[in-house]
Amino acid sequence: MIADVLKAAGEGARKTRIMRTANLSYGLLRKYLDDAVAIGYLTFSGEGYGVTEDGSAFLKKYSEYLSRYSRVGKELESMRLEKEELTRMCMNRRSELKSSANKGQRVQATDLDSASY
Question: What domains are defined for the chain?
Answer without folding.
Answer: 2-102 (1.10.10.10)
